[in-house]
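Blinded run. Sample ID left blank on purpose so nobody reads anything into the name before looking at the predicted structure. Input follows.
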Amino acid sequence: MKILISQHVPSNLTPYEQLQKKFGAELAFHPFFLIEPLSAKEFRAEHINLPDYTAIVFSSRHAIDAYFKLCEEMRFKVPETMKYFCSTEAVAMYLQKHIVYRKRKIFYGTGTPASIIALVTAKHKGEKFLITTTEGSDTTQITTLFAAAKLDYTVGVLVKPVSQDLRSVDIASFDVAVLCNPADVASLRENFPDFKQESLKFISFGKAVVRSLEEAGFQIALQAPTPEATSISKAVELYIQSC
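Blinded prediction complete.
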C-alpha cells in the first residue's frame, strides 16, 4: 500500500518505519504548501495600524517571524510595553528569537482559544489586541470568546499558504493520501485541475480539512484525530488495519 502524507519528513520516523515493517506500507512525505509572510504592501491592504495595539496573540512561529518582519519593513519599533499572548509554551519560547524573554509581558496557554482567554484576566482586559492568523483560517472560536469577554480586538492576517508544485508527484500511483489542512486541498486542485478521486482514499487529520474535502466532493475514508488515532501515524495504522 502506497501512502502519501502532505507533510515534511518528520524528525521522528520511528512510527512510520514500524508501519513499513509491520504492514509493508510504502510512505512518501511531500508538503502540499508552504507558509509565507505577507509583504508590507499586502498587509497594508488590511488597514491595520500596528502602533495602535498594546497586546498581540500568536498561535504559530510563522506569525511571529512575519510580525517582526513587517514591523521592520514598516519602520515600527515594537515598544517594550507590548504584551504577548501565545497559544503554547513552545510558541512563546520562540519569541526569544526576536525579543528578550520577560515573563511579565509574555503569557502562554495550552493550545486552545479558551486557555488564551483565561490568561486575559482583569489585569489585561484594557489592552487592545491584535489576533494574528493565516489567510483562509477560521478564527471564529477565538473571536467569539474575545467578543463575549468584551475585549478590544482586531484579527490580522500575517501569513498565507502558498501551494507547492506537485506535478512531479504521481498522485494516481498512491492508494491513500493524508491531508491535514484546507490549503492541502486547495493545492491539490490547483496542481491537478482535472483530478478525480477514483480509487484514492483520503485520511483527514484535523477538523478544518474535513469541510474542504467535502466541499470539493471528495470522500473521506478516515477522520482523525480521535481518541484512538491521536497522530498521523496512528491514523494510518488504523486505516490499514480496517482494510
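Unblinding after everyone has recorded impressions. The domain at 2-32+164-242 is CATH 3.40.50.10090 (Rossmann fold).
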